[in-house]
Amino acid sequence: MTLHPNSIEARDVAYHMHSYTNLRAHQDSGPLVIERGEGAYVFDTSGKKYLEAMAGLWSTAVGFSEPRLVEAAAAQMRKLPYYHNFASRSHGPVIDLAEKLISLAPVPMSKVFFTNSGSEANDTVLKMLWYRSNAMGQPQRKKIISRLRGYHGVTIASASMTGLPNNHRSFDLPIANVLHTTCPHHYRDGRDGESEEAFATRLAADLEDLILSEGPDTIMAMIGEPVMGAGGVVVPPATYWDKVQAVLRKYDILLVADEVICGFGRTGKLFGSMTFDMKPDVMVLSKQITSTYFPMSAILINERVFEPIADESDRIGVLGHGFTAAGHPVGAAIALENLAILEERDLVGNAAEVGGYMQAELRRLADHPLVGEVRGVGLIAAVELVLDKAAKTAFDRPGQLGTQVATRLLDHGVISRAMIDALAFCPPMIVNRDDIDGMVSGLRRALDDTAAAVL
C-alpha cells in the first residue's frame, strides 16, 4: 500500500497503535480502513465490498447496521444514557437483561454479574473464585486449570488462562495458580492410530494426573470453551466433555464454560454448552450478546458459587469489585433487542441449517493440496493449511502460509482470520447459502492462487 501524506491510512499509522498487529510491519503496510457495514458485508474507503466471514471478531450475530439495534441504543440514550450498579443502584434494562439471561441458561443459574468484555469477565471469574475459596475456609484452593491453545482474553489473569504462547511472551505470563492441560485437537495431538474416543479418554486421564500431581484440594475450577475459537476452532471429540466432567465431579472441581464465542447460537444451539452437554457452574458471555454494537459481557453463576460469595461480602461489608460501565443501560437495551431478533428470526436455527451447509461446502475443499483438515460445527469453522499433507506441516515459519492465503482471500472479497496456519470462518448468523457459496468460491480461488505460487 502506498501511504499518501495526510491520507486516512497515513494518519492511522501516525497516531493509532493496533491490537494483535506487527507494529513495525504496520508502519510500512498501513491499515485496511472499513467505512460502513450492511448485513453480512462491509465496505472499505474505496467502496470495495467484502463478506465479513469473521463477523468482525466472532461477534456480529445480526450483521452490520441493524436498524432495530440502532434505534434501541438511541431510545435508551434519550431516556437514561448512563447509570451504574454500585451500592445497590440499578435500572430497568439491566434488571430485564439479567432476568432474560437466567431464563435462557441451559442449566440452573442464580445471578448475573456484568462486565465490559470477555477478558474482564474471565479475569473477574478468577478473582471471584479466589474470593469464594477464602469464604469457604479453603485458602489453599486457588488453582484453575485451562488448556493449551485455549483463549480466554488478554488482561493479566485472563491472558494467563489463555494457552497461546504469543499471549505470554515478553508479558511475564502466566501468573501463579494457572495450569494448562492437553488441547483436544485430534488432528494435531492424537497419536498414530489413536481413535477420537481413545484420544478423549487419554485427555481425561491427563487432566486427572494433573489434578493428582498438584493436589485435588488445591484446584478450584477448570475453564474451557465448548469449541476453542482463537486457538484454531478446535472441536473436541464427541465424548470429551463427558469424560472431563466426570473427572471434575470426582474431585469437586467447578466448571467454567467460556461461551464468549460459542454463546447465542454460534454452534447451532443457543449455547455451546448445550451442543456438548456441558453442565457449568459458571458461564461467561460476551460478543454476540449485543452483536458487539456495544461493549458488554456477563457472568452467570449458580447457587453453589453465589452463596459463599454473598456470605463473604456480608462478613466484610461489601463485595469490593465492579466496573464503572458494567451493566450499562444502553448496552443492556441493545442486548435485549439483539436477543429478541435472534428469537424472532430464528437465527439459531439458521446457524444450524446454513452452518451445516457451510461445513459441507468447506469439506469439499479437503482434497485441495493445501488443505490438511476442515473442522467446525454450526457457523464456526477452520481450514487447516499445509504444504505436506502426510507430515501435516507448512513453512518453517508458523503462520506464513496462513497469512498468504488470508491476504489472497481478502483480494477476492472475503475477510477471514489466519490463526497461525488455519483460516477461521465465523460469518454473521444472518448469512444464507448464496453468501456461503461466495465465501467458499473466494477461498478456493485464494487456495489456487497460493498453490500456484508456493508448490
- Could you tell me how far the N terminus lies from the C terminus, measured between alpha carbons in angstroms? 26 Å
Radius of gyration: 22 Å
Largest sheet at a glance? Answer: 7 strands, mixed
Note the beta-strand portion: 15-25%
Low-confidence stretches: none
The counted number of beta strands is: 15
Total number of helical segments?
16
> Which strand order spans the largest sheet, edge to edge or round the barrel?
4-10-9-8-7-5-6
State mean pLDDT (0 to 100 scale).
97
Report the principal-axis shape: globular
* Structural class category: alpha/beta
Proportion of helical residues: 40-55%
List the helices and strands and how they pair.
Blueprint: H1 8-15, H2 23-29, E1 34-38, E2 41-44, E3 49-52, H3 55-58, H4 67-79, H5 92-104, E4 111-115, H6 118-135, E5 143-147, H7 156-161, E6 178-181, H8 186-189, H9 196-214, E7 219-224, H10 240-250, E8 254-258, H11 272-275, E9 282-285, E10 297-301, H12 303-316, H13 329-344, H14 347-363, E11 371-377, E12 380-385, H15 400-411, E13 414-415, E14 417-419, E15 422-425, H16 433-454
Parallel strand pairs: 3-13, 5-6, 5-7, 7-8, 8-9
Antiparallel strand pairs: 1-2, 2-3, 4-10, 9-10, 11-12, 12-15, 14-15
Helix pairs in contact: 4-13, 5-13, 6-12, 9-10, 14-16, 15-16
